[in-house]
Please model this.
Amino acid sequence: MANLYEYEPIVGKDVINELELYASKLKGLSVQHVNSTAVGGGVAEILIRIVPLFKELGINTCWDVIKGGGKFFEVTKKIHNALHGQKVYFTQDEIDVFIQTNEQNALEMDIRGDVIFIHDPQPIGLISRKKEICRKWIWRCHIDFSHPDTFTWNFLKKYIEQYDVSIFSAPAFARELKIPQVLIAPSIDPLSDKNKELPQETIESILELFKIDKNRPIVTQISRFDYLKDPKGVIQVFRKVRKYIDCQLVLAGGGATDDPEGAKVLAEVQEIAANDPDIFLLLLPPSSDIEINALQRASTVILQKSLREGFGLTVAEALWKAKPVIASSVGGIPLQIAHKYSGLLTNTIEGTAFALKQLLQNPAYCQKLGSKGKEHVRKNFLITRHIRDYMLVLLSLSYKGKDIVFL
Amino acid sequence: MNRIAKKPFQFLTRQNLTFLLGRKAKNLKTILMHIKEVPLSSIYHHTHHYLEQHEYLSPEPPNDFAYWITNVLQNDSLGEKIAGIDLRSLDSLEDIRTKLIEVIENGIMQDPESAVRNVPTGEEFHFMAAQTFVFPTRYLARDLNEFKECLKAVSIFSIYYHIFEARLFQPEARFCHWIENSLENKKLADTIKRLDPYTQTLDNLRQNLIKIVTMHLEEN
Model:
């Protein structure tokens, strides 16, 4: 795992010095993160990197994962989909499973932080311990909250409003809440296996492994096999474009232990792809970061045609590799792409196909979009900025309501 | 001559935490209503954060209101007038708020129908506010030579604080204030006061400041 000083050549010495400065104001504080999975998905990926860096900065930090059975994760997946705007119905039994699993975790978990960072809805019920042990509680939401299902929102709101502060990833996710709402975009780690520079031989060997032709354009979408990532729409886009331009499509992603729907979506996508030799459907195990990195670096254009998105970290990953990206204007994606400047934003299959044809035929435009995108990520979406923002939230807990704080 | 300052200059740095206010506007009428009601920290956020977040895009776009009115509401002429507000000449956030209200109200008066022309769902203007944390750095300047070296070493956030925020929140922390009062060099202070920081990138601004101080040291 990279240490703080390895980021210096990427973000600058001044940025690292200032992180140490902010951390010095938090000495003695302990922070406990809690989420629902140790592996797979954006939240675990961020915590794996952030927790050691916080420790290196001298902030006592730990990370716990709640326990839950298959039924619990089926319910939380439904909650996830409902918050993304899908109409779903919960039985009383499902609601009981959610409440009981949270109660059980609240009883069993060693809550030892001065500040407890709860990530996403799965462990939201741990807040029930607040009455007994006090402390400061932060609810960090990584999900697209722009069109939540009303029942689900009202159910969760009762928990959220018991927290001291909430954190959302994009401005459109702000809700009417009695507690303060902070905007913090997530981030990528430029030194992780998924984002570090790779030798050309590694990239080529991975293309060979998957039998992808390095001499023809490669269009890639990296994401979990999830309806909200619209893999079927991506295949439609590809088929519209391939009529005119010879190219290949790669749909690649892993699964997460808290997402039981992935296998079903993959089966449906396989049926639509119908053994097309130019469509590569790659269900990758969690340890495939180098493979994902290589696929992104080998790509001519990267798509992120999500219907809903919490933030869409795969966009930042692609931009960091200076790739031209076409993405839906949903969730946190417009924060990452300034349309026609650091990428292209689209809303429909037709629009995405048109943009893809444009990019595949204009390498100079691709290069310009890619280099601007990379700089935007360097300034705004790297892990060092994320750590800084989390430290500011921790500081803000002591200065509620003050516009300007002199430390 | 490299005069020793009466009091050394303490370089500060700062970071902002962004709060979502849960207020959104879908047309000119509602954005105007919210501009009148939101805390000044929101006016500050929407007129300044773009400079930092989209620093590589600078000098455009100048502020969130101008960007949204031009690109989302597609009211080019009003957007241009808001972009053209001379923030450098306004000394307080209340003055900036008053000017924004005046320009938008004039725009509505000239084209009353524009007040209720809505943007598509999902493209509303979301109001936010900034909480600013100011920290002392390890950089201290006792004379102009040290000041120049510090300018090269401090973060872009420190330059940002002393140029943009000190003007609004802590006037005695402005570079020009120290140069005029502690170094007693009014000529150099006036040169720095004349810089318009709102129309250049932060990196350019740093380079310009270094250049001005270097030239002054060479001339004297």
